[in-house]
Amino acid sequence: MNCPSNYPKCSDIRGFTPFQFVVEPVDTLAVRGLPAVLNCSAASDAPVRVEWKKDGTFLNLVADDRKRQLADGSLLISAVVHSKHNKPDEGVYQCVATIDNLGTISSRTARLTVAGLPRFLSQPEGVSVRSGGTEMLSCEVTEELAPFTRWERDGRPVELDGRVIQLPSGALVISNGSQSDAGLYRCSIDGLGPAKTTDEAQLQVSADSGVEEKLETLQGPVAVVKVVGESVLLPCVMKGYPVPVIRWTLNDRPIDESRERFAVIGGGSLQIVNLTEEDAGIYVCQADSGNMTSEIQAELTVHVPPRFLTRPSNTYAQESMDIIFECDVTGSPPPTVKWMKDGDTVIPSDYFRMKQHNLQVLGLVKSDEGFYQCLAENDAGNVQASAQLIILDLDVALPSAVPSLTDATTDHVASGPSERNDPTPSAPRDVVASLVSTRFIKLTWRLPAEPHGENITYSVFYSLEGTNRERVENTSGPGEMQVTIQNLVPDTKYTFRVVASNANGPGESSTPLTVATQLEVQVPGPAPNLQVVSVGTSSVTLSWDRPVTGNGEIQTYRLFYSEKGRDSEQDVDVTGLSYTMTGLKTFTEYSFRVVAYNKHGPGVSTEDVVVRTLSDVPSAAPQNLTLEVLNSTSIMVRWQPPPTGTLNGELTGYRLRYRKGLRRADAAEISTSQLFQLIEGLEKGKVYTVRVSASTVNGSGPTTEWIAAETFENDLDESQVPGVPSSLHVRPLVNRIVVSWTPPENQDVLVRGYKIGYGIGSPHAHTVTLDYKQRFYSIDNLDPSSHYVITLKAFNNMGEGIPIYNSATTRPQSAPDPTPMLPPVGVQATVLSHDTVKVSWADNSLAKNQKITDSRYYTIRWKTNIPANTKYKTANTTTLFHTVTALKPNTLYEFSVMVTKSRRSSTWSMTAHGTTFESIPSSAPKDVTVISKEGNPRIININWQPPTEANGKITGYIIYYSTDVDAEVHDWVVEPVLGNRLTHQIQGLTLDTTYYYKIQARNSKGMGPMSDAVQFHTPKGKSSTSLRLALTLSRLCVSDKPGITGRQEKRVLVIVVIVSVGVFTIIAVIAGAVLCTRRSNSHQKKKRAACKSSTGSHKYKNSSKDLNPPDLWIHHERLELKPMDKSPEPNPVMTETPIPRTAQDPAAEPSHQRRGESLRHEAEESRRGGRPKMMMPFDSQPPQPVISAHPIHSLDHLHHHHHHYHLPPRGYLHHQISLRAPATPSVFSDRPPSAESVRNQAPAPEPPVAPSQPSTTAEHQKTEALIKEEPSINPPTAHVRPTHPLKSFAAPAITVSTHNPPTYETTLPSTPLLAQPGLLPVPGVKTASIGTLIRARAPMAVTVPSAPDQSETSTMLDTVSTYETDELSEEMAHLEGLMKDLNAITTD
């Protein structure tokens, strides 16, 4: 640019930013299910942000997981979705590029079309061709599927050449046929997923017989529209003998087939490549076989895409200036032009004017800066060109030449200083309007009071009153203090202000002056002699003379025109006295008028002149062609005229052609001016095809498709009336009722039509007669909320048949449905928990920031498909997300969203799916049944079904069984079962005993509820009370009643012994049970399992499959881990009182004194009314593995093993376990002896001891001594024998070392352990492991429950202290005497 030397700020002018599209999207044909790419790339020196629009709306790529933007800006659709009712990807796309803080440009638009489902409109049929002749095999497909069709012969692709061609419709043409062409042909559609093929059709080639054949047209040319540069194939397939000769003409001139762009292939079809505008016209195919000729014509239209002759250029300007962006385009049809600024369409106004294709911007303001685009579009395509507008400050000089400036502001270019160091002029004085006219105002003023220099120039800024956009007009030279403002609007107020400028820049502004223009008085008169003549089907020529009246020279003429019947008027500026207008519609009336403009503005308009463009052949075929078979020899043909606007002239009639059969055959032709035609004299039982075309004076238009109908083999019976219609259905709406029906069941009786009667309360108020082919009818103009009775009956020439009745009530009147809103997109379901899912979405009808500023709300619905008839649940929200709660665990839900604003609602969005997390089962196993095993009454099979609400995958079941249905849950025997099992076998039950069974299911989240108890009574067996049982029970609980002495006579001893044994057996059983049970007071109710030999803590039975025990076995309340006595017998019977060990057991030394004290205390409690302990019946079983407990001397071990089990509920932690060491010290191993047992230690009160309090050596020694001295003195305990039918997990023997005794500590420091006197708790944490006969398992940490109340344990300790040695010795001696007497009797 050129800049004066005294303008230093010229160097501050920023340059234009290169900004353009390198690649723009093009029309694309996509395939459903495959990816599609729309290319776009913009180049600039600044960072460019690319976005995409679809159908004018920006795409939200964040919410659409199928669409994403590539690095270069291209749009990738990963998998195209397309169905009959859902076409989310098909549409018009546009790429939008933006440079932040600078501007935006838009690319040309591109249409994405998705190929439809592969289907054939017709199947090829077997044909025979004479050697040297021509034949065609049909394969009709839709236009978008034609590029994907292929032909095969005998399973191999057909090679296409000049002799064998494929028509645009998909049909295959074989000319100059030979024997090599014979075979089985089929058409296939490839590239749209799995290939789809037609049925095979056989082509036979026969020898040339010399018999003459009639000339037949297999396929003629049809009207086609192409774009410059494309290729076209005009088919002309003729069959006959002699072989016809084909010739082509264009606009009545023969086509020179020697031209390289033209070629006749396939026996007569014309192929043109690289089309030009000159190739457009009427093509005629002429066939001559010597004895017959045929002629078919079709029009080829060639469109030319828009092309720029002049592109808009980059422009510098200053505020208040006027500029023009030039844009000149050409194309065919003439393109339409629109302008855009920064991606938004420019709307014409007083300051944005479109003159022809140019854009004029008046009175620039700073916000007008940006990128302006000229977009031109026609049927062949669209193009765009852009230019940048930069608005400079007033103190910055413009380039010396800015061609886009209007004349009004050219003088202002390159004027104005760049520095403000020196003073500028003050405001001009005395601004007045010295001359006011209708179209101009002359302003004058005086020199500023302080000019601060010479060569003062002036700028006049003016605007319409009430607007902020100013325009500027500059004086013609320095010192000039007047200016004339032109092109104003008459009778309008304007505001003016004047600014003086010196070498330092513009100064102060004058006070605004408001002036109103005068009314219009001197404008041109009407242009005389306006004539309009049609010169073509889409063009007219107009001419007129110069107006007679009016001051001044005519500057331009504006031609206004509009289509008749439309209010919108278009205009074009013309400089001469004539104009030819093109691009009009065919055979359409237009109204024209002309207005002359002079310097004062528009003059008087001429009168409207109406003219109609010339007619043409119809551009569409007749509609709704139907065939009605009247009888065996006649068919009635009916149709409707072509659509409105496609007739292109006055209708002169219709041409109807019909032929016999579906194949190509000679067709008869009938001309008529009616909308129906009766075809008579047909053959019985034959198929006929019919098609119709409309005609004007210019010729016939396109024909309909061939429609087929078959005449009757025999005429239907019309000697009786038709039967009753088989069904009648009604669908009421607000003002109408839609009626549908099916014909009478007897199809042999002719039906000529139907009659519908309807009315409010009676069907006889109105009657409608319908055609026999009709199956539905809409009864219109009804009253809302009214009850109508409807009747339907069929009729023929014999009369009316029996009617069928129905009724319906129209719906109440409601307001018209508003236009639906766009549904939400990108619906996502995020699972938060087992019963909570968060649903989120985006709303394309909101702004880019997705901020809701109106009263819209969203409705979310959800359901699960299990069961199938589940109803939707809904919720409303005003945000773009919603958290759905109260869902079922481990369940698949589907979610969809709709938006509602006022009375407008959208359809439901696409669905999103989510599966809730698992949760513990909320229902118990069901259908629990117990069956005794046949042949073995000690074994039962228990069966069940999974829980109804499993809430996840069942990983296992826990079977509980007990003989006491009211027992606490921790007193039931437990057996684990794998989750894939629904049956289990329990062995070793006691005969003639009632058992109760419960089942509990578990999944990955935990245990569910237990089932209801199921009762089962084992069968009876032989019951015998052996002497050994009596002796054993006498050892368990010896009564303190005096027994029978040995001082009686020997002869009486035998009788007494026999009686005593029987009485003692009964008394011992009853007294033993009473005394043993009495030890538990009301605070120890939960320890009743101590009298059951297999109870205690929860018990598990080790299965042959070496199952892992459930990790909830440690959760039961008051769980106690106690030493188990090692029985010397292989199958010992678990009893209540410890049996003295044999001589082989060094730890079996009894303590008679303590035992006696214990027994005496039991008897005393029994006398005080204590509840006796009940014994659990059971049988002995072979030895099995037991549970062992290991001391862990650090809490770190607990953390290390915590993942092997679930921590118990908080309530369980308030109980503790006291653990006694076994009488026989042993070395611990992970596989303890199977016969080893653990007996629970009775708790005792003690003062609290802190967990960190150390245990002295004396205390440890005292503890050890106590253990060794009292190996068998225990309160009532539950023996743990996994071999027993009521099996349990328990803690086995714990190794006690004299030098390093183990220490134990509760998990809750605030609750001290209970111990015997002198045995204090010491730190330690226990872990449990399951010892098996095969392998050992890793230890698991055990949380120690709390001890019972202090009062309870104090009573137990008191019991121990009340026994004395002499009493126990006396009782034992008495028992031994009885045994000796009994042995003597047995010996005798």
Automatic annotation (TrEMBL):
InterPro entries found in the cross-reference section: FN3_dom, FN3_sf, Ig-like_dom, Ig-like_dom_sf, Ig-like_fold, Ig_I-set, Ig_sub, Ig_sub2
Region (Disordered): 407-429, 1081-1189, 1224-1263
TM region(s), chain numbering: 1052-1077
UniProt xrefs under SMART domains: FN3, IG, IGc2
Primary location class: membrane
Domain of life: Eukaryota
CDD domains: FN3, IgI_1_Neogenin_like
Alphabetic keyword roster: Disulfide bond, Glycoprotein, Immunoglobulin domain, Membrane, Repeat, Transmembrane, Transmembrane helix
Coiled coil regions in record: none
Sequence ranges of Basic residues compositional bias: 1081-1090
GO annotation, cellular component aspect: membrane
Fibronectin type-III domain boundaries: 427-520, 526-616, 621-714, 724-817, 823-919, 924-1021
The Ig-like domain, residue ranges: 18-113, 118-204, 229-301, 306-390
Composition bias type Basic and acidic residues, residue spans: 1113-1128, 1151-1168
GO biological process, one term: cell-cell adhesion
Subcellular localization(s) per the UniProt record: Membrane
A Pfam family of this chain: Ig_3
Record's bilayer topology term: Single-pass type I membrane protein
PANTHER family, per the entry: NEOGENIN, PROTEIN SIDEKICK
Family, per entry: Belongs to the immunoglobulin superfamily. DCC family.
Protein name in UniProt: Neogenin 1
Source organism: Cyprinus carpio carpio
Record lineage: Eukaryota, Metazoa, Chordata, Craniata, Vertebrata
